């Protein structure tokens, strides 16, 4: 079965690509998000839509070699929207 990640061309903020984590199978969700973040160059951003506050994911991202600035655009109650901007 071929499945495309929900990284859409729909741009929500300042022409930034958006990834909806809620429709990625749970077993591969964090890996898919890490892959999407890895595709960002320094200064580029990605908006993540998550079905909950992604605190465990933020810890994983903090341990990466690359660094990201994280800004909450929406904090629940149904969706959390975070903007990740690669800084190094």
Give an overview of the whole structure.
The structure is a single chain. By secondary structure, the chain is α+β, with helices and mostly antiparallel strands. The chain has a single domain (18-86), classed as Translation Initiation Factor IF3, CATH 3.30.110. Helix content is 20%, strand content 30%. The chain has helices at residues 29-38, 55-62; strands at 7-8, 18-20, 45-50, 68-75, 80-86. A five-stranded mixed β-sheet has the order 1-2-3-5-4, covered by helices on one side. The longest helix is centred in the middle third of the chain and has 10 residues, at 29-38. It is globular. It starts with 6 loop residues before the first strand and ends with a strand. Residues 1-11 have low confidence and may be disordered.
Provide key terms for this protein.
single chain, 88 residues, alpha+beta, Translation Initiation Factor IF3, 5-stranded mixed β-sheet, 20% helix, 30% strand, globular
Poorly predicted runs are: 1-11
Principal-axes shape call:
globular
Structural class: alpha+beta
CATH architecture: 2-Layer Sandwich
For the record, what CATH class applies? Alpha Beta
Distance between the termini: 36 Å
Q: What is the count of helical runs?
A: 2
User: How much β-strand is present in the residues?
Assistant: 25-35%
Overall pLDDT confidence: 88
Count of beta strands = 5
How is the topology of this model organized?
Layout: E1 7-8, E2 18-20, H1 29-38, E3 45-50, H2 55-62, E4 68-75, E5 80-86
Parallel strand pairs: 2-3
Antiparallel strand pairs: 1-2, 3-5, 4-5
């Amino acid at each position: 079965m071929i499945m495309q990640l929900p990284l859409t061309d729909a741009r929500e903020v300042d022409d930034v690509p958006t990834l909806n984590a809620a429709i990625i199978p749970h077993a591969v969700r964090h890996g898919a998000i890490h892959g999407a973040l890895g595709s960002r160059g320094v200064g580029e951003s990605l908006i993540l839509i998550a079905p909950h506050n992604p605190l465990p994911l933020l810890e994983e991202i903090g341990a990466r070699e690359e660094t990201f600035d994280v800004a909450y655009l929406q904090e629940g109650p149904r969706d959390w929207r975070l903007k990740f901007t690669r800084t190094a």
